[in-house]
Amino acid sequence: MRSLRKTLLLAILVSVVLVLALLHSWPTRAYTTVDVWQRPGPIVERHLEERLPEADHRLGNIPFRVRDSVAILLARNGCVCEGESGGVNLPFAQLLFPRVSAHPLHTAFEASELEEMKRRRAKEYKSFQKRSESLADVLIIAEANNPLQYPTQGVEVRPLKTIIIPGRVRHTFVKVDCCPTVKINMTATLGTLNVAAEVDGVKIKGDGEMHMTLSSSLLPNLNRQLQFVTYTNTLFHPSTADTVHFETEGHQAIFSIKIRHGVTPKLYNTGSKGEYNVSALVTIATKTFLRYDKLQDLIDSVRRYYPTVTIVIADDSENPKTISGPYIEHYIMPFGKGWFAGRNLAVSQVTTKYVLWVDDDFIFTANTKLEKLVDVLERTTLDLVGGAVREATGYTATYRQTISIEPGEEDGDCLHMRRGFHHVIQGFPNCVVTDGVINFFLARTDKVQQVGFDPRLTRVAHLEFFIDGLGSLHVGSCDDVIVNHATKIKLPWVTQSESDKTYAKFRYPPASSDATHTKNGLLFFKNRFQCLTHN
Amino acid sequence: MRSLRKTLLLAILVSVVLVLALLHSWPTRAYTTVDVWQRPGPIVERHLEERLPEADHRLGNIPFRVRDSVAILLARNGCVCEGESGGVNLPFAQLLFPRVSAHPLHTAFEASELEEMKRRRAKEYKSFQKRSESLADVLIIAEANNPLQYPTQGVEVRPLKTIIIPGRVRHTFVKVDCCPTVKINMTATLGTLNVAAEVDGVKIKGDGEMHMTLSSSLLPNLNRQLQFVTYTNTLFHPSTADTVHFETEGHQAIFSIKIRHGVTPKLYNTGSKGEYNVSALVTIATKTFLRYDKLQDLIDSVRRYYPTVTIVIADDSENPKTISGPYIEHYIMPFGKGWFAGRNLAVSQVTTKYVLWVDDDFIFTANTKLEKLVDVLERTTLDLVGGAVREATGYTATYRQTISIEPGEEDGDCLHMRRGFHHVIQGFPNCVVTDGVINFFLARTDKVQQVGFDPRLTRVAHLEFFIDGLGSLHVGSCDDVIVNHATKIKLPWVTQSESDKTYAKFRYPPASSDATHTKNGLLFFKNRFQCLTHN
């Protein structure tokens, strides 16, 4: 009997454990499938237009006179690759009156490969569009004389969470007859609608579903109920938008609910309070190639003014030498990996709030006051501020460029670069707002890392960084923080060193390289430009 | 006489050149100043609320019954740092029923430094908010019974450019009396209003300024004129929004115009058409530290299946060895620079469309079919897809995690991580959508570079990358692409090598490190969390 009892107890224990294990693995929610394929979906576009009254057609008969000065500012259909022609043909003409030149970019490719490149580019672009378009950018028009009051902007919910729809949705129905039933139909697509509280006298149908209806003969009660309408996102996506429709008495109200996590901050510890602690706030980053003497001059000059600031050096020289010293981080790369790859490497290692980019042949002087640049970024919303570079001749350059993109059609967009800037910065009379600057700048580390230096650019490149940063970098330039540039003047009686010759071979390459990794090939394929104009 | 004529001609030539030089340097536009200081500006918030009729106050008297099942889903005011308490205390309880534990993050700091850390964090966060808030996210409510029809979403202009305001702005004024004058006042802040064409019978005032008025006694003509209203952005900012007000007969219409460049694509050349060319599409990236034997095993296993795919290796070992072979890129870092610094370095060098992350102790097998992962990313909108890692015991893990952030108040937000996923992916039955995955994944290079691996994380870290990617990475996980993990099982009779011992010292560090560079210290300061809960 005892052994029987033991067996029984054991059997029960085993069953209990098995049941618990089964319960644990039992799916506690039925996972729905989600369609994340790259195919076009329904878009709410001009939905209301079909419902507009006939009056619009009558407007077509009313004549108008075009105002050329304004009409000429509007975007054309597609962009045309043209520069400025003619102009005075004096000896100093290009210097005094720099003309705009236009460069069609498809010329980066051999005729034999161009069609294939265009086909691939169009395919990649179509994918990109599907991934980046959002219902939150679609044109929505508010109807006139809508009895509904509703929110048109600013409604947000975190993925899979619930909110009360804000904006005191109200129905201002003004019929005089007593007590007709007023009904509101509400629809969502990526989530469900519900009510957080119930009000007497209001009939609710479809609560917890994508389509909900509220109806009542008591308008104040209906409006009270409307204050408790909730939206719950049920179809997960980290950053998207749902379009919600409210409909009543033949009137429509359409608005978007943004579904997103919210922007997580990426803050940096700034070191001790009080004055700017440059060593805690700034890391100097540079790339070097076969110019250890110039690099050492740079380091020595930095140390005269900033003995403890960290210097990050990306090095793709052929036989790398050791660079030692406190607060120096030296990174060895495969030989000749490239200019922008080295820049991307250097900034990828920065752990301070700001990064200062310098070329390896700069020299710090008493005018190279980094505190001034830090002050600009600490007190404004700029992300990057350039300084000035002084040549041996005394000529000082800030290389300010404005950049704009004119949308094109299938052939691609047009990229326009012009010397100059947009505005002077209030409170910083030596500083301006622009789009591109010289290769001596202080920037927010997280923004520079986010934009990045494309490692496909192996040799000559500069403004490509600012083109990639368009729309995300707010760029400034100050001409009162100056760094010197070691002279490039080649004196005829001084023989060029071997490393100088090798350097020149890489720095000023011949035209025969992999087409999509050249500057123009990359602008054509990667950024989908057809034309570049500049002065 | 002749010398006089020559002198005269010379004088004229010099004067001409001087005049030309003067004209060239003459400012051709008066540059306005722009205020980019970090200070709060006027925000259109609840603008209409003050103007709502008294009726709203009467609604307050109408009673309601709370629906708990819905009300409980709404966000609380601030978040609370609590896990799950109690639960069955069986031997396998945590395994069968993993409980949620909560970790307050301020504990990363000594009591003596905590106040200063909180103060600095609050200051940095305030700056961050000023840089990231946008008028395009502010709550706007459309009035009921507005005679104006206007666009509420989707109006965009490129910086300093001009558009016609879309949406067929119309006035549906319906008064019966003959010919009263109808007036519309329009206001903008970051730009000016104008008309691209003029219509008879409409009086225009303030055209070309920030405040324009159209008035007419002929409604159809006024509506025809409204079709030609233009907006020109005049105050430069690379990404912002202007709030435009239309007012007529006591009614207001408010909407945003987004001012931005548009998203510039970053496309990659995918190699030959036809089947997936893994070598052209994928770069394998890894970081190594004192484990050259395991690294060589990884490389050999990769080469068995993918002889020409590029492998990028970031190496912060103390005495780096040479790793040679075709299609291998070896990067030497300062000794012990760190885990995420190495990951950031490796991905910063990738020039193909996709990057595959592997740890240096993985082994490729016949089940490691990269083509399957490429297929997922080519055909869906996912940015990253994880695979599965098989241990020597046969246990295979995908380490799927869902991540959400609950907004908090001054103490910071609450970060919630749970094992699991959101949905199964339609068409890919072995794949799901989630937020975090194991360290074996294929991802779009541009997205991974944009999110980045924070080099402040020197030793142990994993999900921090996915936390930084929240909202920008669309993450998936497939369990049918498997890589093997070299065994970590330490057999008692096998002596640990010197490098194994050094490795262990770095890999599993003691708790005493720079607080803001620890995992929890960084979550507290950088991302502004107060609490982490997970199961």
TrEMBL record, chains A, B:
<comment type="subunit">
    <text>Homodimer; disulfide-linked.</text>
</comment>
<keyword id="KW-1133">Transmembrane helix</keyword>
<dbReference type="GO" id="GO:0008376">
    <property type="term" value="F:acetylgalactosaminyltransferase activity"/>
</dbReference>
<keyword id="KW-0333">Golgi apparatus</keyword>
<keyword id="KW-0732">Signal</keyword>
<dbReference type="InterPro" id="IPR011143">
    <property type="entry name" value="GM2_synthase"/>
</dbReference>
<keyword id="KW-1015">Disulfide bond</keyword>
<keyword id="KW-0328">Glycosyltransferase</keyword>
<protein>
    <recommendedName>
        <fullName>Beta-1,4 N-acetylgalactosaminyltransferase</fullName>
    </recommendedName>
</protein>
<comment type="similarity">
    <text>Belongs to the glycosyltransferase 2 family.</text>
</comment>
<dbReference type="InterPro" id="IPR029044">
    <property type="entry name" value="Nucleotide-diphossugar_trans"/>
</dbReference>
<keyword id="KW-0472">Membrane</keyword>
<dbReference type="GO" id="GO:0001574">
    <property type="term" value="P:ganglioside biosynthetic process"/>
</dbReference>
<keyword id="KW-0808">Transferase</keyword>
<keyword id="KW-0812">Transmembrane</keyword>
<keyword id="KW-0735">Signal-anchor</keyword>
<feature type="domain" description="Glycosyltransferase 2-like">
    <location>
        <begin position="284"/>
        <end position="447"/>
    </location>
</feature>
<dbReference type="InterPro" id="IPR001173">
    <property type="entry name" value="Glyco_trans_2-like"/>
</dbReference>
<feature type="signal peptide">
    <location>
        <begin position="1"/>
        <end position="30"/>
    </location>
</feature>
<dbReference type="Pfam" id="PF00535">
    <property type="entry name" value="Glycos_transf_2"/>
</dbReference>
<dbReference type="GO" id="GO:0000139">
    <property type="term" value="C:Golgi membrane"/>
</dbReference>
